[in-house]
Amino acid sequence: MKRLTIDCAGDCLDLSQPRVMGILNVTPDSFSDGGRHVTIDAAVARGRRMVEEGASIIDIGGESTRPGADPVSVDEELKRVVPVIERLTKEISVPVSVDTRKAKVMREAVAAGAGMINDVAALREEGALETAAELGVPVCLMHMQGTPDTMQKAPVYTDVVKTVAGFLSGRVEACLAAGIPRHNLLVDPGFGFGKRLAHNIALLKHLDDIVSLGLPVLVGMSRKSMIGQLLDRPLDERVFGSVAAAVVAVMKGAIVVRTHDVGPTLDALKVAAAVLE
User: Fold this and answer.
1) Residue numbers of the chain with a pLDDT score lower than 50
2) CA 138 – CA 132 distance, rounded (Å)
3) Which of 102, 196, 223, 258 is catalytic?
4) pTM for this predicted structure
């Protein structure tokens, strides 16, 4: 594989082979692990554990983006994420990403030690694009139809793959125009964000169309409803299905897999990487 390393504010993330991004939600209401890591000690312990299991980057989020979720205030999101970032970055040797749509949270999270921005709104919120350009850290741009509180009510596409690819291409152009260098961009098709099961399956089947944009592709399907619908399994029984989806995505060209289950996912990706190499 072609060697690609991105600089996450001094911490390097090597993307020459598939990598695992560990999900660390410091929220009371996230769909899978809400409430489990709301204290700083619990969150930091979970982050350390995921690094021990092999995570190459930890993604910290303080606002639930599950379907139907209500937005939280800037101050509340800052209160949740900044203390965790400050402590965790001192205790682990891999980069930390902040999962946020808000410009002020981006700014303060990076000041606290975050080296990457993971934005489900693809820098469309007020001030986000300019702030990301100023901060100079890598950014992941995700496709979402609607907003978390409305996105799953009635998602409709004529051609979901073409729509998502076109949207991401447009956001990349907006970033380049704002001064964000291409080497600082990743893209995410946004599985489960304003998509029905058929839309998610089509995106996974044709993920190489997103890869053809020429940027590192990040995917997040861990424990999501698409896995539950396919398997008829509750949240805590979706690990195997999530891992299978991750392997398919990597075989289609994805390079970063965002997951709750770092160890099993990493084992599977090592097998996939051996085949790809």
Assistant:
1) 1, 30-32, 34
2) 8
3) 258
4) 0.93
* 195 labelled catalytic: no
**pLDDT tens per residue, range 17-34:** 999 999 999 987 544 454
Cβ contacts of 229 within 8 Å, gap of 6 or more: 197
CATH of residue 217's domain is 3.20.20.20
- Count other Cβ atoms within 10 Å, centred on residue 157: 17
Q: How many domains would you assign to the chain?
A: 1
Task: Please name every residue paired with 118 in a beta bridge, in sequence order, or none if there are none.
Answer: 99, 140
Say whether 162 is catalytic. Answer: no
131: tokens are 């702030």
Strand ranges (DSSP E) for the chain?
A: 5-8, 11-14, 19-25, 57-61, 96-99, 116-119, 139-142, 185-188, 218-219, 256-259
Of 224, 233, 238, 252, the active-site residue reads 224
